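Hey, can you fold this one?
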Amino acid sequence: MKRRAVNSSMAWLLAIYVLPVIGMIIYLSFGELYLEKSRINRTRSIWTHTNNLINKLTQQKKIFATTYSNVAHSLFKLCTKRQGIPAVKGNKLKLINNPVDIMRSLINDIKIARHNIEMIFYIWHPGGLADEVAESLIKAACRGVKCRLILDSAGSISFFRSNWVKKMRSSGIEVIEALKINLLQFFLRRIDLRQHRKLVLIDSYTAYIGSMNLVDPVFFKQNIGVGHWVDLMVRIEGPISTIIGMIFNCDWEIETGNSILPIYEKKGIQKIREKNVCTAQIVASGPTFPKGIMHQALLTTIYSAREHLIMTTPYFVPSEDLLHALCTAALRGVDVDIVIPLHNDSLLVTWASRAFFSELLEAGVNIYQFEGGLLHTKSILVDGQLTLLGTFNLDMRSLWLNFEITLIVDNSSFSNNLASLQYDYISNSRLLDRETWSKRSFWQKLLEMIFYLFSPLL
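Sure. Predicted structure:
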C-alpha cells in the first residue's frame, strides 16, 4: 500500500506469484522497512533530545564553513537542509589504505586514549591484528578509559561466538550486539536490517571512518577465492568528530535506551586546526535518520560533476535514477570511471550488476574490473575536488535499508591523495571492452536478466 519504485513492486509480485506461500512469508519478513516498537519509541525520544543538541551546536558558528567549492556547493546545501548541520571546517584528515597501517594507527591511538573510546563495526572477525586491537582495548579499559562497542549481530557472529566478548565485558568494556537476530522477533523487525557503519571515536576528537571492518585480511574469508579485501580508512582530527559522536550517541541509545552526554556539553567544541585543514560533512543514513538522504546525496554528487567522476564500489546494483545520472554524466562529456572487483563474494550481485553494463558502456562510461583482490573501497571523486568515502554500496540495501555513514570532503589536496589511490586501482584492473562485451553468450545474457529481475531486492 506504499508507493515505491515500479520495478521493486513488480519484483515482489513476481516472487509472490511464483512462490505464493513462501513469497508472502518472505515479503512479510523482508518487504517492508520496520523496527520493533521499543526502537521506534526510543527513536522518537532521541530526536527530540538530538534536535536540541543540534540547535546548541549550530550556535558555535566558528566551526562551520560558509563557503564551498562550486562542485561541492549543492551537496553541502542538501546535507545542511536535511540534517540541520552545516559542513564543518578546520579538520585534519589522513587517508590510510594499508590494513596493517590502519590497525597499527588505531592501536597507537587506543594506547594514548585518556577518556573514552567508542566503536561501531558491521564485522569484527577474530584473528591476527584484530586480536591486538582487542587486547589494546582491554588494557585501555583497565586503566580507566570508558569503552563502548556496537557490533552487528549477523556480521560479527564469529566474534560473539568467541571468548573475546567475555574478556572485554569482564574488563569493563560495554559490548552491544546490535539488531540481534532472534527468531521470536522475525515478524516484529525486518531481519535483514543491519548496522553497517564502520567508525571509531577516541577521546571525542580522533576518529576513523571508511570501508574496512575490524578484520585482519590475512585471516578473513580466505576460502572463497576472491583474494584479500582491499579497503581504506580516514583518520580524522578536528571538530567534525563532534558530529560523529552525536551519531554514535543516537545508535547507542536506540540499542540500549541509555543516553550519553556529548563531550561538548562538558568540555566545549574542540579547537579548529589552522593548517592542512579540510571542510567536511558527515551523512548518517538508516531507518531512524532522514529518509533517502544517501540516495539524494549520490544523485546530487553525480549531477555536480563537470569534468571527471571516479567511483569505486564492491557491489554495483544501482537504482534507475543513479544509472540514468551516470549515463547522463557521460553523455554530457564527463569522464566517468567505475571500478568494481572482477571477483565478488556475492554471486547474486555479480550477475545482477552485469545487467547494467551494456547501457553504461553505450553511454561512454568506463568500467574497470579490479584484479588485485576484492575491492571493498566505497569512494567517489568529482572533478579532483569533492570526495565521498564511507560504508555505502551502490545497491538498494545501502541506499534504503542499512545504517550507513559517509564522509564528504571539499578539499583538493585530500582529493589528490584519493585520486592517486583510485588510479592505482585502475592500473590493477582490466578495462571492459564494449565490443567484446556485446559478444558474450546468450546464456550469460539470460542469467544477467534473470538476476536483474530481483535487483530491487538485493
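The longest strand covers residues 88-96. Let me know if you want another pass with a different chain boundary.
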